[in-house]
């Protein structure tokens, strides 16, 4: 009798470090053997001519999330995870978003209630912290970190989400101390608000003015500022959805000084430009996200940063809003660029776009592709002991890629609930035709094979950047002792 419930044979395995021909044997949803030749398991998948990669991890997506303006995303945990799986992603880390006045434990419980019965692949939650009260800082966040919510996102912009610099320092200090990683949306709020006010006063309301108001300098300034806040405390920080040449340069500069500064980018900054927003009527709204797509020089800088290691992770920032009154057009024809929900969909196309335009066109190696789309996400967010690579003992989360598969993208062929894609009509090569989550084929032969609710919650450990944060310099040690919080009086 075969020892394996499933085998994947005759394929070429690609990890962040290696590329080699071997068979994979799976027992109890985990990789049990990797060898040149294995006998077939109860289920046997022939991967001849295919590349066998770790399933993708998407550590930035907004699912069943209410925006700070009260707009609900078009995808729930079923449609988002189905769409992710069809695009080769086997784990998502979406957000449990606190709005001001909300209790963090209650927010987390609410997101579990949404995700548990619906997700078809494994999932975890980052927290969004918009209200760092004493209760949150002293009690709720430390308890949640210990329970496996070891990363949180904070915002430097948006009226109802933004933290001031003092609050940012509070959160960075807590995260560094308690073992969590802070993700930062870095844009200068007042610059954006000031430009937008002038634009509207001058009658410039079309979607393309969204990109004008979110000037690249607003991103560079906030990126530079959060880097200094992080360096002051020696607390690691990950700047999310980096779009502009100035922000890339600031991050690279900090990294060259040895600062624990990490970065993420997304498909929209490689494959879209600000000029794409300039469409008839309000159509440009379908291309509006924050930060917005930029110019060719910024695209090139982002490509360069992916190749040279400035970026550790490439995520979708899937923020799915329909092109109707429920999302992009809350005021119908009278909608201005300030009224539209911000965000673009991308959970399904994230990997195929980068595989086609990055790997097959020679901009990045397939090993780097694996690092950027899976391995580094698991390391950065504290679950590399379970996922993100192909090794004995890890979950058998695998994406089997056919490099010859050619597709012309249409929204109708995707599995999200958005109704459009900003990448409509592009032809790409390469597709993950079979996708396994913990050894279960969730997508095969173009069909879904996973039940609602079959995905599992993933509690996480300490993110690698936090674990690896160097011992503080003498100067930083002295600063820390001088500014340590006084112990509470009995
Ligand atoms: O425009 C975007 N990215 N919307 C989603 C919210 C965020 O800031 O990531
Ligand atoms: Zn953001
Ligand atoms: Zn986002």
In a nutshell, what does this entry contain?
The protein has 490 residues and is of the alpha/beta class. Helices cover 32% and strands 20% of the residues. The protein has a domain at 55-386: Metal-dependent hydrolases (TIM Barrel, Alpha-Beta Barrel).
Number of strands: 19
Low-confidence stretches: none
**Cα-to-Cα separation, first versus last residue:** 66 Å
Helical stretch tally: 14
Let me know the CATH homologous superfamily of the domain at 55-386: Metal-dependent hydrolases
Largest sheet: 8 strands, parallel
The radius of gyration is: 22 Å
Shape descriptor reads globular
Strands ordered across the widest β-sheet = 8-9-10-11-12-13-14-15
* CATH top level label of the domain at 55-386: Alpha Beta
Helical content band: 25-40%
What name does the CATH topology of the domain at 55-386 carry? TIM Barrel
Structure description:
The chain is of the alpha/beta class. It has a domain of 332 residues: Metal-dependent hydrolases (TIM Barrel), CATH 3.20.20.140. It has an eight-stranded parallel beta sheet. Strands 3-2-7-16-17-18-19 form a seven-stranded mixed beta sheet, covered by helices on one side. A four-stranded mixed beta sheet has the order 5-4-1-6, with no helix packed on it. Helix 7 packs parallel to helix 8. It is globular and about 70 Å long. The termini are far apart. The mean pLDDT is 97. The structure holds N-(aminocarbonyl)-beta-alanine and zinc ion (ZN) (2 copies). The site of one zinc ion has 3 residues, from loops. The site of N-(aminocarbonyl)-beta-alanine has 9 residues, from loops.
């Amino acid at each position: 009798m075969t020892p394996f419930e499933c085998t994947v044979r005759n394929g070429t395995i690609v990890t962040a470090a290696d590329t080699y021909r071997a068979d994979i044997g799976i027992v109890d949803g985990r990789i049990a053997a990797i060898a040149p030749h294995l006998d077939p398991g109860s289920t046997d998948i022939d991967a001849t001519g295919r590349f066998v990669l770790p399933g993708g991890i998407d550590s930035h997506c907004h699912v069943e999330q209410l925006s700070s303006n009260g707009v609900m995303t078009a995808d729930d945990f079923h449609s988002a995870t189905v769409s992710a799986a069809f695009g080769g992603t086997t784990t998502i880390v979406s957000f449990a978003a606190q709005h001001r006045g909300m209790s963090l434990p209650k927010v987390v419980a609410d997101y579990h209630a949404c995700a548990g019965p619906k997700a078809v692949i494994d999932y975890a939650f980052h927290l969004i912290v918009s209200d760092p009260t004493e209760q949150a800082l002293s009690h709720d966040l430390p308890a949640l970190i210990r329970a496996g919510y070891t990363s949180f996102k904070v915002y430097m912009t948006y009226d109802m989400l933004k933290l001031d610099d003092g609050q940012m320092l509070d959160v960075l200090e807590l995260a560094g101390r308690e073992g969590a990683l802070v993700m930062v949306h870095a844009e200068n709020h007042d610059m954006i608000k000031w430009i937008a006010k002038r634009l509207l006063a001058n009658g410039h309301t079309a979607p393309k003015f969204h990109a004008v108001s979110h000037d690249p300098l607003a991103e560079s300034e906030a990126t530079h500022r959060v880097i200094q806040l992080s360096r002051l405390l020696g607390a690691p920080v990950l700047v999310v959805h980096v779009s502009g040449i100035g922000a890339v340069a600031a991050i690279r500069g900090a990294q060259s000084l040895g600062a624990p500064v990490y970065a993420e980018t997304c498909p929209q900054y490689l494959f879209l430009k600000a000029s794409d927003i300039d469409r008839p009527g309000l159509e440009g709204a379908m291309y509006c996200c924050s930060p917005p797509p930029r110019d060719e020089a910024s695209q090139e800088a982002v490509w360069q940063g992916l190749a040279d290691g400035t970026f550790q992770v490439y995520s979708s920032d899937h923020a799915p809003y329909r092109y109707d009154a429920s999302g992009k057009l809350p005021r119908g024809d009278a909608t201005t660029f300030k009224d539209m929900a911000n965000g673009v969909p991308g959970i399904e196309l994230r990997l195929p776009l980068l595989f086609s335009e990055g790997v097959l066109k020679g901009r990045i190696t397939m090993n780097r592709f694996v690092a950027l789309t899976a391995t580094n996400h698991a390391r950065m967010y504290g679950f590399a002991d379970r996922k993100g690579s192909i090794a004995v003992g890890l979950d058998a989360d695998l994406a089997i890629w056919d490099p010859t598969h050619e597709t012309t993208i249409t929204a109708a062929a995707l599995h999200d609930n958005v109704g459009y894609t900003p990448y409509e009509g592009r032809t790409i090569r390469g597709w993950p035709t079979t996708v396994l989550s913990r050894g279960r084929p969730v997508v095969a032969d173009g069909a879904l094979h996973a039940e609602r609710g079959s995905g599992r919650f993933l509690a996480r450990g300490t993110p690698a950047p936090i674990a690896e944060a160097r011992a503080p310099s003498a100067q930083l040690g002295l600063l820390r002792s001088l500014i340590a919080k006084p112990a509470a009086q009995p």
